[in-house]
């Protein structure tokens, strides 16, 4: 799967346009590993930054507490509620409540907010866990991710997921009660970490490893072995047949220079040369579950496009006012 | 988490034992003993010719009960909430006896005595965690404090002179006693059985004689020692001479341990001559002489003979710890010998600042002696008043009428309870005699529950005395080797109380009145059995007729300050070893905490002898006895600071500490961490840090926002800090789990990267990751409780004056409930109503507004329903303020590395690891390390990284390498901690030294250096900008000077002082200076009369109608014709001059003292027009 990405270039100037390639290595709902080639670090990092901080999700933002006799105070509970990831597949199409024309952002409108209710009271002698499963959503498409996952898995194979309790909000003992109304809104991770859809986004430069085979042959097997062992990650190995040093997993290399230092210490400088490829990146994306990891990348590219559009707009029309208004909308 | 049992917190309870045990003893026996020692008073009415004898007996203290309903117990939690005291009824029998008639006993109420929590009278005594929680206490509640008006107060442990030990001292102030006095004396603090003490000083006079000095009610009395010797026992000059000089022998002159010189004979002669010069020959003559001398000073002996007075003086003031006069005589002889050894420099003076010669003042003992004094005063005062009353003409009281007398005595009896309570409340001893204590103020402190460390430290701290704080000399503050193992060398604050306020080590205990089975020790029995053991091992008992000798031939044996005999110096070593073995095995009635202070013979060292102490309130600590290893499992011996100085105790590292063969170590430390206090023990790898850093950590641990209390919901502390999501540290010491610190954690494991990033981490600033803060890193709250007692406001009025009520104002309804109190959970903004009251007199409802500049949330409202019948008068409102980390808040690691948050940096801009994708929570600058050398922090980071990867807590107990394990000899002895931690990291694919390759969050490119990154336990300190920031543009000015006011609370400015002025001047920034000191301060345009030069004489006349043309942008020009000069009677010379308003004020002040100030106005260069 390849996707064309933006290369900002004016028609009149020399074209620096490149056609980045994406190759997906591994894809799960909440995990994605892909290669990004033929572009430079600025583009890769921009993508990383957008995924972390600017892809919108939905999270609880306003909590009205009706009754709270639990041991945790109101702010604590509100904070915990905010951090519960909600399924946010509709987030891209939703409105920010500050831009919403239909309402003034008080959660009365379906375009910008989703209402949740929670009402739990403990009447038994056992401690009652209030979990994300107790949150009643008014919009079935927006609910805590673990609840959604449970619904899906139990629907799929009838597997009883009683053990999966959900995210604990607070524990209640006999007679304690928690009643509240919460409003979830669209937001981005830049404003508050609760809106960040990504647990981790990172990329590494693909390493290029050149072993000086001639020099390597001067080593004894024992020396080779100790040299291979010097790397904390398993990058090199010894071929059991030829007893030659081979690269087992180049991407396991963390650029820690341990093997280079080791080679120098052994008196064989230049035994190995490792360079990061300047235009090749391996991304690892882990999602919180709010949106699928693959969707997260696509959304991020969309947002990046919009941002670049804004830059181009400035280039073509050089209208500062329009630019700022455009940027402000993002 | 399973149910907690009592034994879980045993180690914690142990730390508080000295407080509780001493109070228990006060309840069990101390009170009784104090009553027995109170002398009955005799009132004789000259008119009626009748004698009334009043004495006290059978004190009775009851557990705290509710007021009015005596059957219901009062619990500490209720006292805290209702701001009352946790105290029990105190009654005693007062016995009245007319002449020799029948004794009539009357039970009189002496008010209430505060009861220490968890003492024998406390309802929570022996309660298990479940019961404690049911009573709304902490599950770990340790007690040891009192509750006075809802505040928790404890008695400060004070260091005082060791009891019943004669200490030779050299002090310049001794010379001021009078002409002929030298600077040398032997001082002995003698303690009676009821804990009251009298300090006796034996001064050396330049002529060779000595004087015995002691204080009676604020005055020092000095007696020639010969008179006292003669008055004590029937003796003759020869006997005194022999017993004084017996310690000198020609044979041992210059030998090791010879303390006496040949001068002693002459001195004995001088002492005897002194008595002869007063023509006192016999004992009765001496007694009469003393009696005559002391009659005015002694109370209640008006009718007695001189001899009786003298006997009372000898009994009550001279060697009060001894009862027999023979013992006193022998002790005085011993003191004289020691004094002469000091003078001849054959024995060194004892250091009063060394722990060797010190012990501790415990709460129970303080209360016992204070109560005794108060009761005595009360008896005396009652007697005086009764006599005054009967002497009056009206004859209100007839002394013969017992009912009237009883009534009279019970009238003022409750002052006793009040006096004790007020002493605990404010910490001041209200006493005329001084109680032989070093200070009168600051006896109690508040047990702040800011966090658990601070709370705990209050109970483990010992103070050297307030009087030393003001002293210029620093010798008292020195850390002396004598305090090894007893006082923590690390945990002392820096600044004013440095070295004076110390903390007991975690292993240090205090000898108590209770044996290991919890029975009160029978000291008489103990002493008898020790004596029999001593005699059994070759001690020669001191008998009058026996020929005596002195060191070095024999050593004197003192048991609790009583000379019991002497033992040959050849046999002494063996004897000491024997006593130690008996002490360990616990047979023969030798207590386990007996102090066997064997001072060996030396050349000019400490005065030799065998000093044994059984008394309580000594410091003790456990060490392992090496000799005793073979027989029996118990080889843990309790030793005191006195004996420790002369013992050979080795470190458990397997070495011999450079000892020679003939001085083998007899004892061994149990663990090296025993020299550290509890708080110092919690610093991981403190042995790898520079020592001041550990001191800083001990201070900062006590300022940390942590989990202050688990029962926070039920507490009513004035202010408490609370961390929302604390964590258990990954790297911890053995003490952490021993003292259950997980119950009260104080910090967060933050991922710390050490790099210079963005420049915002310069100079100990630190960058926090904004997303981490969003997710709840170091979030906290401040809880404050306001107690409102409407009845208290109008104390004079009997009836209800104010009640809580709400007016019908609609605005109030949103924030105040119908009962006049706020809604729980409500946010209240500054200057919004907090509660409202209705005044029944004026029928006016007045809301009380919230003070401060921060929003608060009402957390809890409690109403005390016990006070008034119908209306609530007493209310506690607890408010909560959220304190999320913001720029300017203070944080610190556990290694004295504090820093202020300078930026909340966006997550995306933080450097990240390509392998794990981790971004740090916190960035600190590498410059924080080289000069501070906190290697422990680096180790913690590596260890925590390994531990978190491995899923295990890492043990970071300091000095663990100094413990030699006999079974497994570690081959890796030379290797460092890193060599243990490094391989753990490599096994998980991380760098051996804890560094990682990080990429810039802004550019996505690799950072030049590998970055040291790992989890470090960070504490949030209570110093927050929200409490400290001060800003002002315009605002209130001072009424008189018109300068801006000071003070953060009032919205004042920050003073631009002299030094600041100097700095600006040095820069030549004159305009800035003018702006700061004049334009922005009290800029004033004054009207000055140029004729008379006065600033004060201008007066306004009616402004003229003519309108002044205004120039845009300038203030309207003033016409000088508006003013005229009062003295010149003309407005012609009026000029306007800009000046500071205070200058005008100065002119006015000067005018008030008839000084005229004239201004000469000119328009020349330099003056601005």
UniProtKB/TrEMBL annotation, chain A:
<dbReference type="GO" id="GO:0006366">
    <property type="term" value="P:transcription by RNA polymerase II"/>
</dbReference>
<dbReference type="InterPro" id="IPR022842">
    <property type="entry name" value="RNAP_Rpo3/Rpb3/RPAC1"/>
</dbReference>
<dbReference type="GO" id="GO:0005665">
    <property type="term" value="C:RNA polymerase II, core complex"/>
</dbReference>
<dbReference type="GO" id="GO:0003677">
    <property type="term" value="F:DNA binding"/>
</dbReference>
<feature type="domain" description="DNA-directed RNA polymerase RpoA/D/Rpb3-type">
    <location>
        <begin position="31"/>
        <end position="314"/>
    </location>
</feature>
<keyword id="KW-0007">Acetylation</keyword>
<dbReference type="GO" id="GO:0003899">
    <property type="term" value="F:DNA-directed RNA polymerase activity"/>
</dbReference>
<dbReference type="GO" id="GO:0000419">
    <property type="term" value="C:RNA polymerase V complex"/>
</dbReference>
<dbReference type="InterPro" id="IPR001514">
    <property type="entry name" value="DNA-dir_RNA_pol_30-40kDasu_CS"/>
</dbReference>
<dbReference type="InterPro" id="IPR036643">
    <property type="entry name" value="RNApol_insert_sf"/>
</dbReference>
<dbReference type="GO" id="GO:0000418">
    <property type="term" value="C:RNA polymerase IV complex"/>
</dbReference>
<dbReference type="Pfam" id="PF01193">
    <property type="entry name" value="RNA_pol_L"/>
</dbReference>
<dbReference type="GO" id="GO:0046983">
    <property type="term" value="F:protein dimerization activity"/>
</dbReference>
<dbReference type="InterPro" id="IPR050518">
    <property type="entry name" value="Rpo3/RPB3_RNA_Pol_subunit"/>
</dbReference>
<keyword id="KW-0804">Transcription</keyword>
<dbReference type="Pfam" id="PF01000">
    <property type="entry name" value="RNA_pol_A_bac"/>
</dbReference>
<dbReference type="InterPro" id="IPR036603">
    <property type="entry name" value="RBP11-like"/>
</dbReference>
<keyword id="KW-0539">Nucleus</keyword>
<keyword id="KW-0240">DNA-directed RNA polymerase</keyword>
<protein>
    <recommendedName>
        <fullName>DNA-directed RNA polymerase RpoA/D/Rpb3-type domain-containing protein</fullName>
    </recommendedName>
</protein>
<dbReference type="InterPro" id="IPR011262">
    <property type="entry name" value="DNA-dir_RNA_pol_insert"/>
</dbReference>
<dbReference type="InterPro" id="IPR011263">
    <property type="entry name" value="DNA-dir_RNA_pol_RpoA/D/Rpb3"/>
</dbReference>
From TrEMBL, chain B:
<dbReference type="GO" id="GO:0006351">
    <property type="term" value="P:DNA-templated transcription"/>
</dbReference>
<comment type="similarity">
    <text>Belongs to the RNA polymerase beta chain family.</text>
</comment>
<keyword id="KW-0862">Zinc</keyword>
<keyword id="KW-0863">Zinc-finger</keyword>
<keyword id="KW-0808">Transferase</keyword>
<dbReference type="Pfam" id="PF04560">
    <property type="entry name" value="RNA_pol_Rpb2_7"/>
</dbReference>
<dbReference type="InterPro" id="IPR007642">
    <property type="entry name" value="RNA_pol_Rpb2_2"/>
</dbReference>
<dbReference type="Pfam" id="PF04565">
    <property type="entry name" value="RNA_pol_Rpb2_3"/>
</dbReference>
<keyword id="KW-0804">Transcription</keyword>
<dbReference type="InterPro" id="IPR007645">
    <property type="entry name" value="RNA_pol_Rpb2_3"/>
</dbReference>
<protein>
    <recommendedName>
        <fullName>DNA-directed RNA polymerase subunit beta</fullName>
        <ecNumber>2.7.7.6</ecNumber>
    </recommendedName>
</protein>
<dbReference type="InterPro" id="IPR037033">
    <property type="entry name" value="DNA-dir_RNAP_su2_hyb_sf"/>
</dbReference>
<dbReference type="GO" id="GO:0003899">
    <property type="term" value="F:DNA-directed RNA polymerase activity"/>
</dbReference>
<keyword id="KW-0240">DNA-directed RNA polymerase</keyword>
<keyword id="KW-0539">Nucleus</keyword>
<dbReference type="InterPro" id="IPR009674">
    <property type="entry name" value="Rpa2_dom_4"/>
</dbReference>
<dbReference type="GO" id="GO:0009561">
    <property type="term" value="P:megagametogenesis"/>
</dbReference>
<feature type="domain" description="DNA-directed RNA polymerase I subunit RPA2">
    <location>
        <begin position="564"/>
        <end position="621"/>
    </location>
</feature>
<feature type="domain" description="DNA-directed RNA polymerase subunit 2 hybrid-binding">
    <location>
        <begin position="679"/>
        <end position="1050"/>
    </location>
</feature>
<dbReference type="InterPro" id="IPR014724">
    <property type="entry name" value="RNA_pol_RPB2_OB-fold"/>
</dbReference>
<feature type="domain" description="RNA polymerase Rpb2">
    <location>
        <begin position="1052"/>
        <end position="1160"/>
    </location>
</feature>
<dbReference type="GO" id="GO:0003677">
    <property type="term" value="F:DNA binding"/>
</dbReference>
